[in-house]
Predict the 3D structure of the following.
Amino acid sequence: MKWILTLFLLTSLAIQSQKLPKGFSYIKDVSPTIQGELRYCYNNNFLGVPVNGYEENILIVTTPTAKALKKVQDELATKKLGLKIYDAYRPQTAVNHFVKWARVINDTLMKQQYYPEVNKRHLFKLGYISSKSGHSRGSTVDLTIIHLETGEELDMGSPYDFFGVSSHITYENLTEQQKKNRQLLQKIMRKHGFRPYSKEWWHFTLRGEPFPKTFFDFPVK
């Protein structure tokens, strides 16, 4: 019995001492004021269930990405604003979960909230689901801007992860304030080295990312 307890303690210690792959960082260690809400850890996402590979609500990215995000955060803070990240590094295991879900055509639990006007069978063709994701390379983030004091999100005109034209960065049927909010996000992210994705106002990838051809699969924890 004693040796079993010893083995358990040693195993627990080993788990606690696991380190991220070289070149990766926890965002909280680089810019602790950046807020995080990993939707894929919970039910509030387009699948309606927690996603495989997301074990904790903790933000991981490549170290250059974390440093670039800190510059964004520091500039926003001068306006009493800040970043809120919905997704950062995404393990390949999670991407595989997306693909498996997309192939079950009758699983439409969250359709009305996330893709009301899109036929689920077309998600691959339209580019909303793919067998590989830039997030798995560690330098892509999904995010928005919040008021630092209240945590309230700026109105961007469509929800995060909404599959539809209203999420495209060139969408024009917005209020003037929504347009200004999107323009602020696009401008400051581009300024600090990120490139946007035309179909998702929240999606950015670091230019010159350190692992452009490597898709990682360690868990988010």
Summary: Confidence is low (pLDDT under 50) at residues 4-17. The radius of gyration is 18 Å. The first strand starts at residue 24 and ends at 26.
